[in-house]
Amino acid sequence: MPVYAATSESNGKTRNTIREELVAIGCWKLGDTGFRFGSSFVSADTKPDFTALAQLATQFPGARLSVFGHADPVGDDTFNKSLSGNRARSVYAILVRDVAAWESLYLSGGSQGWGQSCIDDMLAALGFSTVAEFQAQADLTADGVAGPMTRSKLFPAYMDYLCPRVWSKGEFLGGGLSSNGKGDYQGCGEFNPSLVFSQAEEQEFLSNSTERNAQNAVNRRVVIFLFRPGTTVGATRWPCPAATEGTAGCLKRFWSDGAARRAPQAVRRDYGETQDTFACRFYDRLASQSPCEGVEPKFIELVIPLETDLDGDPDVPDCVRLTEQSGAYSAELTVGSPDVVSDGENPLNYYYFHQVPPGLYNVEVKVKSHWRKVIIGLQVSLQGASFRGHNFEAETNGDKMGTPAYYPADQIEHTAAADLGCC
After folding, report:
1. Residues 15-37: tens digit of each pLDDT
2. Does some domain include residue 158?
3. Among candidates 66, 389, 64, 25, which has minimal Cα distance to 238?
4. pLDDT tens digit sequence for 81-113
């Protein structure tokens, strides 16, 4: 059934202040190859992945980022929460060149891969055989010891090698305002597995840890979601606990059947197919349309009823454009097209837009050679379309449709405060 969208008067107000649903407009995933088993050090093999992230960012200029680390269900919840959080923090530090964060991980995370082996890996990636060789090139005392001064130059050199772009902390969802990264990066532990073995497989793998770990690779990942430009979430409203915090905050966000979702059942389950393996309802909602979590993109048929003669010129057919605010979708329809249908009883035209992905949209009408916005912030999801706090999930009466003349674009107020929804 098509989704109908329209405006509606509310308490006689002529301005529109929107609280937007938090919807990801893009995503990036760093898989298991980015880390050694049980390690939060980012390997040199990830260089192409970071290049791809930089390219993705050019498709969504100004998008805000948030980093989510995940671990497989081997080990306990506490360790995996720490490991996934450190992986997210490690990736975040590369993006913003936070050398102090890597120094902290190095000093406190020896059990998570931050030892001499990571020094050797960085040197090899940069083309050096020994610490002393790097020190000589970096104008340091060539004593062959990777001390604090050496690491202060080795870490950023390696970050530059991996990632061609530098983000500011202000380009993340939390704006870099929280000292513990709230909203910018977090670890989900083993609470949101992409793959859950069947009960029979779980029993079989008890005696075959090598095969278990190999098949669990899809669960060891870091996912970055990109959000609409200007979107911010304050630390006090962000539902995820900080990367350095324990599991209690995650457990509060579980679905009522969260434990069963991530536990083995009769058959093997893959999130991209069943979408019933994530225990955290907040992350589940963010990822429900994400190809990075294996979900096939879904679209809707969107029908927008608008008043006739929006351009004020009865001799020129109305031309309407629907544009996703991130630029991911744009389409134009002109009266006379088969996709524009007259109401017949009311002075309205129905504009049928096809294959519309979920997101936040503007609706514009062409007036002479200029485009004028008539709706700013139409929220489209698989559940329906909403505007100004009203839902339009099915056809409504004619008198509630259309864009009243007293809602000119220059009176519309738009805020980027995000509605976190069911979190």
Report:
1. 333 345 687 888 999 998 888 88
2. no
3. 66
4. 999 999 999 999 999 999 999 999 999 865 687
Cβ proximity of 364 and 354 under 8 Å:
no
Burial 306-316 (b: 16+ CB within 10 A, else e): bbebbbeeeee
Q: Write down which residue in 273, 293, 313 finishes a domain.
A: 293
Structure tokens at 136: 């000589």
pTM above 0.85, yes or no: no
Structural domain of 8 = 3-18+299-381+388-419
Is there a single domain that holds both residue 285 and residue 342? no
H or E segment and range at residue 201: helix 199-205
Asked if residue 151 belongs to a domain, the reply is no
pLDDT digits (tens, 9 = 90+) for 130-157: 999 999 999 999 999 999 999 999 999 9
296-299 contacts, C-beta under 8 A, 24 or more apart: 296/272, 297/357, 298/357, 298/358, 298/382, 299/354, 299/355, 299/356, 299/357
Same domain, 41 and 62: yes
Q: What DSSP string runs through 108-133?
A: H-GGGT-SHHHHHHHHHHTT-SSHHH
**CATH for 367:** 2.60.40
Strand partners for 378:
361
SS (H, E, C) 217-277: HHHCEEEEEEECCCCECCCCCCCCCCCCCCCHHHHCCECCCHHHHCCCECCCEEHHHHCCC
Q: For residues 303 and 378, is the Cβ–Cβ distance under 8 A?
A: no
Task: Give CA–CA dist 254/216, Å, rounded.
Answer: 22
* pLDDT score, position 301: 85
Residue 168 and residue 175: Cα distance in Å, rounded? 9
